[in-house]
């Protein structure tokens, strides 16, 4: 029996912050578990562009996504956060308890959650829907990768085409850049 999976992009991720004051880079990794639950890790880097400003919070807005099991961390330290839900949007508001002042200083933090709706099984086919950006101009750089268990079989269709493909540790990994 050959299993197939489909993948296409159509949800939205919307960052909100003072864009002109910070350079924002994002690396997002989606790891589909054999059960279909997907673990999502957003690695976000905020770089100060001014000497006298600093970020006190960051809001990540997820549209049409059903996230659960949130964690937010900076290194080994957990950061305080608040979840706000309005209609189809979930906002994760991350607070930064310390000041990081100075031009060029960078804050690197992770927003992690699980989503049971990204991968859905229909018969022998896994349909995997990865969120897309509402606006890629919000980020200086954006990298997305998703990992699918080898047990899911070969891809029947992926759109857009990934820039890189590799097989590692029992997973097929597909990578995309902004």
Explain this structure.
The protein is 0% helix and 64% strand. It has 178 residues and is mainly β. It starts with a strand and ends with a strand.
Overall mean pLDDT stands at 85
Number of strands: 15
Biggest beta sheet summary = 8 strands, mixed
Query: Termini distance?
Result: 36 Å
The rough form would be described as globular
SSE layout and pairing:
Elements: E1 4-16, E2 22-32, E3 38-48, E4 57-63, E5 68-74, E6 77-78, E7 81-86, E8 89-95, E9 106-115, E10 119-122, E11 125-133, E12 141-149, E13 154-159, E14 164-168, E15 171-177
Parallel strand pairs: 1-11, 1-13, 2-12
Antiparallel strand pairs: 1-4, 2-3, 3-9, 4-8, 5-6, 5-9, 7-8, 10-11, 12-15, 14-15
Key phrases:
single chain; 178 residues; mainly beta; eight-stranded mixed sheet; seven-stranded mixed sheet; 15 strands; disordered N terminus
Give the gist of this structure.
With 178 residues, this protein is an all-beta fold.
